[in-house]
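I hope you will forgive my troubling you with a question about protein structure. Here, with my thanks, is the record as I have it:
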Amino acid sequence: QVQLVESGGGSVQAGGSLRLSCSASGRTFSSYGMGWFRQAPGKEREFVAAISWSGGSTYYADSVKGRFTISRDNAKNTVYLQMNRLRPEDTAVYYCAAITRSRFGSNWSRRNEYDYWGQGTQVTVSS
């Protein structure tokens, strides 16, 4: 079992920045690839970013590429999502998720393949 807890959400004006954190406990953090997903009201949960167990590979949705950066610190069992130049359409509940590293390579964007999820943190961007 892996327990994930997100933090860092809040309200910000368009053009601002936020950094989300996701702290993991339980099984060895470096055994997992990590992803961030988001869900806006009335919409499906969508992929935002993912990072391999070592941090050596990162992937982004086109809508956030160049504005968001995913990173991880395995010594602290934490994954981060730095969000810059935020837009109103980034408003959503943001979730972090873990997937076993052996399955990460072909499934990093597939929400149904992730094994563990956090409870989510709200991000609201006003215009």
